[in-house]
Amino acid sequence: MKYARKSDYPRKPSVVWKPKQELQTVNPNQWSKSSKRSTIFHIPPSHYEDISYQCARCGENAVFTAAEQKLTFEGRKAYIWQRRVVCPDCWRERQRIERGIRECTTRWKAHKTELQRDAEFLRRWFELLQTYPNYGGRKNHAGIRMLRRLLDLSA
Ligand SMILES: [Zn+2]
Questions:
Q1: Same structural domain, 100 and 149
Q2: Which of 75, 96, 113 is the last residue of a domain?
Q3: Residues 97, 69 share a domain
Q4: Which of 73, 69, 25 shows the shortest CA–CA distance to 47?
Q5: CB 3.0-4.6 Å disulfide test: which of 32, 44, 68, 145 passes with 28?
Q6: For the segment 27-60, what is each residue's pLDDT rounded down to a tens digit?
Q7: 50 and 93 belong to one structural domain
Q8: Distance 58 CA to ligand 1 centre (A)
């Protein structure tokens, strides 16, 4: 299809723009100290834009929205180049795992002697630590090594 004048061309379909969404302006002064050390601090964009990504865990398409970015970088002071790795569902699962690991760690500190022989507890903790990296968490090599050793002993 040909158009006589430039103004006759259909407007570019707006993929990112959603009418109800307000523009999320960038306020670099609200960023964390480490974000301010990044070169982008000196040439900041005027506003945040939605970032599409694929979940590293389940492969679902997800969006790190402009509004979430403003909250993340200016409210929670996360490093400006921090990106989402997993989708919201997998993120919730990751948080469940984190809570589990925290619980185990707290119990361990208080009842180490008894728990050393509690195979059920050790196995649960071990599984949480092993699953965590699948959700973008850092692998706790020392913890896994210790639990593997303890599980062998208590088996
Ligand atoms: Zn996912």
A1: yes
A2: 75
A3: no
A4: 25
A5: 44
A6: 999 999 999 999 999 999 999 999 999 998 999 9
A7: no
A8: 4
For helices 88-110 and 119-131, give the axis angle rounded to 10 degrees.
140
Question: 95 C-alpha vs ligand 1 centroid, how far in Å?
Answer: 13
Q: Confirm whether 81 is domain-assigned.
A: no
Total of domains in the chain = 2
Ligand 1 centre distance from Cα of residue 87 (Å)? 4
Which of the listed residues 75, 97, 112 is the one where a domain comes to its end?
Answer: 75
In a domain, 104, yes or no: yes
Q: What spacing in Å lies between the alpha carbon of 10 and ligand 1's midpoint?
A: 36
pTM passes above 0.85:
no
Distance (Å) from CA 83 to ligand 1 centroid: 14
Q: Which residue has the tokens 């509690």?
A: 118
Range of the domain at 134: 88-154
